[in-house]
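REVIEWER CHECKLIST
Item 1: Sequence provided? yes
Item 2: Single chain? yes
Item 3: Sequence as submitted:
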Amino acid sequence: METQNPKPKNIGLDDISHKGTNQTEVVSSGIIILNHENFFSIFDNKAQKDSLFQTAIVAGIIAAKKTSDVFPLCYHIPLTAIDIVIDMINKDSVIIEPSSRLESAHHGVSPHQVNQNFISPHLELPRHFKSVKSAKNIQSSSQAQTNSKLQSQITKINKAKHHFALLQTHEINAIKKQHIQAHDSHLYALCVKASIKAQGKVKPVMESLYATSTTLLSLYNGLKPLVKQNNTMTITQIHLESLSQH
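Item 4: Structure as written out by the authors:
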């Protein structure tokens, strides 16, 4: 007897009408790395720096508002605040001078201190364990054996998580070492942080990441005519920093 394969689910947006409305804030960040020669020759000119920063921030704000137009599987959600900050940092993640800022419905979001490795070396992995309901006729010895197996599985998962964290830390340190060597051990960067608030049924995760990416690309585009070699610029470490719900 032939079995019929289930029809594949059509591409579309899931029904979220049953979800409640919440005030959420999503923060993401990324960096663009330059060598020391380009960094100081460009940003010693305050007017030039302000023009580059303001243009990039406006591009990021527009990107956040147009996210659902670019990504077809994103919901169009009402944004209540867009705050994009650009900080100038050195290889030790020390902010060199206050950033230029352009705000839209700003609610006083302060930039967090930039992590020394430009990304958290820890990754929280989800833990899913099925609860086992014992039948009344299961003997105590059988229950103990089941508990022992579960504990063994938990121990193996914890060891795997620890091993993964060590590997990730090693890879991040290797990437940072490569960046430092590629830039003559004089690492300077522009750190972009986008904080997006929204009132709705969907969290503005894509809006924040897209705003960060677009701001970095706008900086790259503005810096191209000013740097001596374009291969001395690197965009990296675009990631989600935090997600909060109020």
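Item 5: Key structural point noted by reviewer: The two ends are 55 Å apart (CA to CA).
Item 6: Recommendation: ____
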